[in-house]
Design a protein that fits this description.
The chain is mainly β. It is 0% helix and 48% strand. It has two domains: 46 residues; 55 residues, YopX-like domains (SH3 type barrels), CATH 2.30.30.290.
Length: 115
Amino acid sequence: MREIKFRAWDKIEKAMREVVGIDFFNKSVLLANILPNIKIESYRRNFSDVVLMEYIGIKDALGNEIYEGDVIENRENGDKINFGHGQCWIFDTRRLKKYRVIGNVFENPELVSGL
C-alpha cells in the first residue's frame, strides 16, 4: 500500500507548501511552511486558493518524492516528463530510477514550455 500525501501550490503566497490536513467539510487545507531555523508555521487556505498535488508513491534516482506537477529528467539522455494531473502514465516504474526531479510546473514554468 502506498503512502498518500499531498503538497500544495499556494496561489496567494506563490509558494509550495506541505499539506498537513484537508478539511472537506469547510473546503480548506492546513498548510505548513517550514522555515530555515526549523520553525514550522501553519495556516489555512480555501480550496480555491491552492492547487493540490498528490505524491505518486515513487521516488526519483536521488530519493526525492515525485508529485503531480513535477518535471523529471532522464539522467542518461535528457528526456523530460511532466507529471500533470492525470496526464502522464508510466507503466514500468522501475524506469523512473533513471530520472531525477528538476522542478515543477509552478516554480519552474520554463521547464514545461517545450513539452
